[in-house]
Amino acid sequence: MDLSAKLKDVSLLQTKCFVHGKWVSAASDKTFAVDNPSTLQHIASCPEFDPKDTEAAVAAAQDAFKTFRHVPARTRARLLRRWYELMMEHMDDLASIITAENGKPLADSRTEVAYAASFFEWFSEEAPRIYGDTIEASNPSCRLRTVKEPIGVCGLIAPWNFPAAMITRKVGPALAAGCTVVVKAPGEAPLTALALAELARRAGIPDGVVNIITALENTAAVGQVLTTHPVIKKVSFTGSTGVGKLLMNQCSITLKKLSFELGGNAPFIVFDDANLAVALRGLMASKFRISGQTCVCANRILVQRAVYDTFVQMVVDEVRQFRVGDGYVQSTTHGPLIHQRAVQKVATHVQDAVARGARVLLGGEPLHSLGPNYFGITVLADMKPGMKLCYEETFGPVAAFFPFDTEEEAIALANDSDVGLAGYFFSKDANRCYRVAEALEVGMVGVNVGALSDPVAPFGGVKQSGFGREGSKYGIDEFVITKMVMTGIDD
């Protein structure tokens, strides 16, 4: 696939890692292939960094931190603002790169670029507002204050499903706080991260402040360097709960500060007093975005029995209008899954549900005619507790409907999970809206809305969905330490 032919600015298509302001190959000269998940065509090859290569990137970040930590907040703000402006100026090219390596439709890719850039805009405005406090000490002969300082070099590990936004959501607050970073780009979709590095260079980000490295086969070994290296003081990871537990164990050796955004299994509740048209719009936004490959998409759709049949039919009618295909085709609404392992997981969930009594109302099969990474948009009815989908995140285009009778039953079903990232519910009863929002065991609740992501809102979960928050005014807190200074004075 000749991706460069789709770009206005071909210099955004970088295929080397970005370390200390330079484009570098792996010391071994090894590379790995980046393929289009829709067509399986080869796009490019990127460096297969190993632990020694990674250590060099960490050293670059440490060297840069010595000076960047003292750069005035207003200067850091201007750097982030310029990076934001460059992303917006190159939206179409960045979107083309995302679609090539991720598969999502171009319209979704453009939306992601705007969303990703918004984190640089937001944190450029927050950088000058990192405040300490003056506290009245118990001892009248002392004066007490706190100051916020950058924590240091940060290891940031990003996923493939939002290859731009999941990086900017981490890098933005890190740089705003005065930290330097080593970003491990996703092996499935590294080209977007490298394009962001090129724009960082143009924005004037000092050498070594932002380092972006790639690996596929060596991902575990590179991750171990980021989680055990004594120079790295903070690790931020977005990915599966299983990998998060492994990384957390590795980080314990040096007691790093952590923020982990892990797996979800979002409940989506429709009560019988809901505006069903609003609920339908919310479900389309939540469930099927990039073919269901988001950590906050609805995984279990709970509908009160009085409106169950009506709402399920509304969803089927809406979903029939979707068009699955290559992301570069204008009529495509939903693209492929990221790889064949993802297709197999979705197929396993559907087969398990059907074997246990669920009905397939739409789809339910891979779309082999389009390619090995395609799965049909699927609607399952009459789901029951105990099915695999109930306790595993599907990460695919499957809308699975569970009937319920009472509010108490819905809450119990929704909370019957060891993860708690996002939850949604729809109701016109104001009292119920307060009750249910407070009862759901999740870090984020959508009440009569199906899209939660906003740079001004704190993003994160509870239970085994992780800890820490990204975005919002709380996002910078993850990258600073609070230092207390007590000063004795003479009477």
UniProtKB/TrEMBL annotation:
<feature type="active site">
    <location>
        <position position="261"/>
    </location>
</feature>
<dbReference type="InterPro" id="IPR050740">
    <property type="entry name" value="Aldehyde_DH_Superfamily"/>
</dbReference>
<feature type="domain" description="Aldehyde dehydrogenase">
    <location>
        <begin position="23"/>
        <end position="485"/>
    </location>
</feature>
<comment type="pathway">
    <text>Amino-acid degradation; 4-aminobutanoate degradation.</text>
</comment>
<dbReference type="InterPro" id="IPR016161">
    <property type="entry name" value="Ald_DH/histidinol_DH"/>
</dbReference>
<dbReference type="InterPro" id="IPR015590">
    <property type="entry name" value="Aldehyde_DH_dom"/>
</dbReference>
<dbReference type="Pfam" id="PF00171">
    <property type="entry name" value="Aldedh"/>
</dbReference>
<dbReference type="InterPro" id="IPR016160">
    <property type="entry name" value="Ald_DH_CS_CYS"/>
</dbReference>
<dbReference type="InterPro" id="IPR016162">
    <property type="entry name" value="Ald_DH_N"/>
</dbReference>
<dbReference type="InterPro" id="IPR029510">
    <property type="entry name" value="Ald_DH_CS_GLU"/>
</dbReference>
<comment type="similarity">
    <text>Belongs to the aldehyde dehydrogenase family.</text>
</comment>
<keyword id="KW-0560">Oxidoreductase</keyword>
<protein>
    <recommendedName>
        <fullName>Succinate-semialdehyde dehydrogenase</fullName>
        <ecNumber>1.2.1.16</ecNumber>
    </recommendedName>
</protein>
<dbReference type="InterPro" id="IPR010102">
    <property type="entry name" value="Succ_semiAld_DH"/>
</dbReference>
<dbReference type="InterPro" id="IPR016163">
    <property type="entry name" value="Ald_DH_C"/>
</dbReference>
